[in-house]
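re: ur question from yesterday

yeah so i grabbed the chain u mentioned. its 287 aa long if i counted rite. heres the sequnce exactly as i have it in my notes:
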Amino acid sequence: MSLRVPASWDLVGTYGHWRAGQLLLASERQPRMSITWQRRGTAPDLRRTLRAAGRRLAREQGCSQSTGEQQLAGDGLIACHPSPQGEVHIGIRALSGGTAVVWRQLRPGPAAELESIASACSAVGDADPARWAFHGLDVALPAWWRLEGIVHVAGLVRAVWFHRRGGRGRVDQALVMRRLACAARITNGHGVAGWLRAQLGRDETLTIERDDTATGGTLMACARGPGATWWRRLRRLHEDRHIVAWIDEADDRLTVQEWQGRGDPMGCLRPRPSSQGNPLPSGRTCA
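ran it thru and got these structure tokens back, copy pasting raw so excuse formatting
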């Protein structure tokens, strides 16, 4: 899902996964908007979902019942709920792939504010490649990769994707992306390779395939460990994690890409300098 938000707004909370989740946007330490989504097998009932969101708004923010519904971006609805502090608006749209998205103002504001953000929102279908850009990570993945979870704390962003062939069946590939602050302090003069070796499990070994981090390039390595199950260990099979790591000198950030699964390993996902982030007219990046 791609969003366009004002330049002064920040993404402060990311919850859930590709099936259902929530984003929280804030400005100057004040909550501004909540965005929730849910993927359904059938077309969502917009009016029913909008009224359910209105009841939640009344419970949490003390707003009155809606004064009416209007069209939003041609394929959605927007409702206004009066409150003692001013008018609070809720909008809903049905995007591609059966995705229902609800925008809810967390403080009174003009309807045009919500309409501009909701109208510019877009989503990709289940079988389409997608670009994921949030909290400094910027990853373009082929079809059928699903975001399963995000952890965002001070100094660390960690995201996990699972791949299911055709969108069904068992997971056959997994991808983990980590972005860490204070790269120079983390490596502590030992380089990226030295830091990776310190992160290995007790029975893992690391093979460095290429290391160009000293000149601003990437490191490619393979961490090999024992089989994940007793049957694989009995057959002396191993589990390989293919690792790509690089340092963004300008931001002092270390990014680590880990892939594990069947088939050929995933190539380096480091974005080109010209495609860092997704600059919007407002100056913010998409989430």
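noticed a couple things. The domain at 130-275 is CATH 3.40.1000.10 (Protein Transport Mog1p; Chain A). also Residues 275-287 have pLDDT under 50 and may be disordered.
anyway ttyl
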